[in-house]
């Protein structure tokens, strides 16, 4: 057998898909005589009849059906390999819009974006940090790093880690008001609560109890904010008990300005996801950023202890 003609196999597969030589010729942009010749050459090369032709119809022989089944798989792999090479050869360029919260951006995503810019000089990044909930589609962001359960939508979500939380208060507050011994004791305390703009503040906090499902306890207090720094400062000043991401409590606890409360009751971590719009034609700059940022983000979160 001589050198196999991949193009002839493509022609045969298209003839079968289109249902006729004429339709295949239109789809391939070549003369019908060329399509017929390619199929005939393939049959000669394989030494088997692949199609039964009549004036009105054509049908695959057993040999033809077996060949087409395997050829479709092989051609799909070949096209994927060609696409992979094309993506590698196409330099990512253009503007990439990325958003996340202030804390995650400053601590994790900002440094990764700086590395990405060095690696891909053709890409311009707009990194928008905000603690409000951003609509990726309507606000035309390409990538978002978001805390919480991803929305049930067409967005593609990749889990990258979890954000750990601490329940904390100042020693002065606990000296004045007493130390809660169990989660239900929080009902008698001032709780500093986080709420995004336009969202109602939580009226319960969750705690994990060993050997049992997590429990919800009622909380209330006179201070609600959409900024963790504000809540941390208020807790340090003895205004109440706060539940904050570990990122915001580490330095204050080392300095003794805050101490853990209810440390034996686990605070359920908040999952972190990277989201983007799906589809087969993802811009090369977005794909390059995801390939570059995801493994670094997962590693950084794990090393920091937030994951």
Which helices and strands occur, and which strands form pairs?
Elements: H1 6-18, H2 21-28, H3 32-46, E1 51-53, E2 58-60, H4 62-89, E3 94-100, H5 102-119, E4 123-129, E5 143-147, E6 155-163, E7 165-169, H6 171-177, E8 191-194, E9 204-207, E10 215-218, E11 224-225, H7 228-236, E12 241-245, H8 246-254, E13 259-260, E14 270-277, H9 284-304
Parallel strand pairs: 3-4, 3-5, 8-11, 8-12
Antiparallel strand pairs: 1-2, 5-14, 6-14, 7-12, 7-13, 9-10
3D structure, described in words:
There is one protein chain. The chain has 307 residues and is α/β, with parallel strands linked by helices. It has helices spanning 6-18, 21-28, 32-46, 62-89, 102-119, 171-177, 228-236, 246-254, 284-304; strands at 51-53, 58-60, 94-100, 123-129, 143-147, 155-163, 165-169, 191-194, 204-207, 215-218, 224-225, 241-245, 259-260, 270-277. The chain has a five-stranded mixed sheet with strand order 4-3-5-14-6, with helices on one face. A five-stranded mixed sheet has the order 11-8-12-7-13. The protein starts with 5 loop residues before the first helix and ends with a helix. 27% of the residues are buried. The model has no long low-confidence stretch (mean pLDDT 86).
